[in-house]
Amino acid sequence: MSGPILQVALPSPLRRLFDYSAPTGARVEDLHVGQRVRVPFGNRQLVGVVARISDTSEVPSEKLKRAVELIDLEPLLPETLWQLCTWTAAYYQHGLGDTLSSALPVLLRQGEAALARQDMLWQLTTGAYAEHPAVSRAPKQKQAILALGKHPHGLSHALISQWGLSRDTLELLERKKLVQRISQSHHHTSEPLPLLREAPLTANIEQAAALAQILQSMGASDKSEASGFNAWLLEGVTGSGKTEVYLQAIEHCLRQGRQALVLIPEIGLTPQTLERFRQRFTVPVVILHSGLNDRERLDAWIAARDGEAGIIIGTRSAVFTPLARPGLIIVDEEHDLSYKQQEGLRYNARDIAVYRANLEKTGILLGSATPSLESLHNVQRGRYQRLSLTQRAGNASPPRFQCLDIRSRPLDAGLSRPLVQAMGEHLRQGNQVLVFINRRGFAPTLMCHDCGWIAECKRCDARMTVHQSPAHLHCHHCASQRAIDRKCPKCNGEDLRPLGAGTERAEEYLASHFTDFPVLRIDRDTMSRKQAMQTMLRRIQSGEPCVLVGTQMLAKGHHFPDVTLVAILDADGGLFSADFRGPERMAQLITQVAGRAGRAEKPGQVLIQTHMAEHPLLIDLTEHGYAAIAERELAARQASQLPPYSFIALLRAEANVAALANQFLEEACEQAEQLCESSGFTGIELLGPVPSPMERRAGRFRAQLLIQAGQRSVLHQLLHSWLPQLEQHHLARKVRWSIDVDPLDMF
Ligand code: ADP
Ligand code: ZN
Ligand code: ZN
């Protein structure tokens, strides 16, 4: 076959490229790596990306198909982002096509043009003001006037949804002659706006020291070159003002004419924090949140790629947003588990962000009150520079910790009497109280009082959770539901009791106990409606004394100035977790939840209920704080050569019968052993296969094989030659299997 061959990455789980000849009429100079093409595949057409251009193909010429058309004239992604995607695919041992699917907005995957929709701006006319009589009965139009008021040079049409505006509203205003359209070119000739909408806070001594280091490495504010790779770990206790450091570092980046990318954890999207970015800067801020539709997401992506957006904020997948002039990456709450995708392409956005900063030669700022052991290890090795904020900003002081020994004490809905008493005192002083429970629902178990039978999920090795409104049993692992049993299926007894307490039960008890104060529950069940969280946050912000009962959702990022007591109902789970990360997780969670207390003028108190008040981990945590735990745990990991002192990958398999998953892993294990021998890979240990901690989930049996290596490069060499063999394995189609590089969950 003569003529160029396109090797195309297609959305397919297979780790390979597919060969096509160039579309009819395409000249060699029209072809580029990174360009999208439409190709025939089976009896349909797919959109793929050209990964390589070659002169030859192993496919015999009569079988080689011709690509239908080139979708892009130029490569879709900037060169560095293309490199980032290919690196990600290789690092996580995932197909390039599928990796690109994770990285690109849906519409681009479907072949939509990657061009801004219109180069059109909306601007207020001179006669427009928010109290204009023509909009007195039109709240949306009034809101639009307020939003456009913040953009004296016009708001790009592509960005209107970011401000909650619709085209219809703007067109109505246009007819009333309060709004006009102008063209983009006009925009560029206008006077530059001042960068800041409001003055920064005066940094305190520690913030100033941290900023001095960052700004120094970022270089002078007027230079045009990216300033080189630098990684900082900003370790700041909760409430120490990390966000202010981010804002001032971003200001510097914007003054260099560059863009900032800010990654936040999934439930960290607090409207308060986001508002602080918009409030501070006049540049367009785009927020990639789950409420965007596909078109809005693509618009935001294009605004970032073309350099129109100054600040891009988003969760995990935003790490793949192309930037015209990258200057700074920030990863807030870098320890957060939501940066790790747990299915498909199992990537860690924080780690990719660090690699990206390296590639694009920018600074990266990782912030947390409870840094991951991985990042602390990188500080020890000199890869990251540590910046510390040890004091709370403003006048806030750190909360006081106290463990409440609940051995042989009576509990009502999981709450001990001294705890309820303490809550009463805080409430009567006009303060708010936060109760943290790590389980939603009414009770984690339904038990027969006569014979001890427990309601279990029919599809998982797990117990059903009792929910009360509406009343049903719910499996939190596979989401199956059924009615609450009325009779014990084993002994026919009728005395079935919910055992233990979840958020619903604590709420019920507290509402009946504190009749003078509202009790607000915040968990996935009460927050499923779109505006629920915002409504709730407004209520909390009003400062009225109340009880907040909630799960992890309450633990992250929020600033509750009137909460003075935080109660942690059950700290014991993490003390005997099977996962080697258990203690780290528990210490992070307790510290984060506790960090919600006393964040303003009022001092805070933290009460931790436990059956193990003498446990060294709890003592260390309450007396010496997270840093002490982190140090201990790092030493323990080093002693047992666990990550970050070694490198692991987890091969998981699941099947309808347990034996099949096991057999697949047994044979995979033998293949790996042979590869290690024949290729001389040393320092590799294969542990397993073993059944997963929850062997049966959603009706499938699960098993796993752990691969541990002393050197990352050796681990990757093994995976690289092993996985293609696994794809060809005779059982590969009967079991569902996956590889997880740097797994964070061991089940
Ligand atoms: P963190 O993200 O570290 O938990 P925040 O950035 O949310 O902390 O800051 C906590 C509070 O302290 C916020 O209300 C913030 O406005 C305030 N704050 C931060 N820095 C300063 C400062 N330099 N002076 C006064 N108040 C500050
Ligand atoms: Zn029974
Ligand atoms: Zn289940």
From TrEMBL:
Domain Helicase ATP-binding: 223-389
Necessary cofactors: Zn(2+)
Residues annotated as binding Zn(2+) 2: C457, C460, C475, C478
Gene Ontology cellular-component terms listed: primosome complex
InterPro entries found in the cross-reference section: DEAD/DEAH_box_helicase_dom, Helicase_ATP-bd, Helicase_C-like, P-loop_NTPase, PriA, PriA_3primeBD, PriA_3primeBD_sf, PriA_C
Domain of life: Bacteria
Annotated TM spans: none
Entry keyword annotation includes Cytoplasm: no
Binding-site residues, Zn(2+) 1: C448, C451, C488, C491
A Pfam family annotated for this UniProt entry: PriA_C
Subunit composition and interactions: Component of the replication restart primosome.
Function noted in UniProt: Initiates the restart of stalled replication forks, which reloads the replicative helicase on sites other than the origin of replication. Recognizes and binds to abandoned replication forks and remodels them to uncover a helicase loading site. Promotes assembly of the primosome at these replication forks.
Entry protein name: Replication restart protein PriA
Taxonomic source organism: Halopseudomonas xinjiangensis
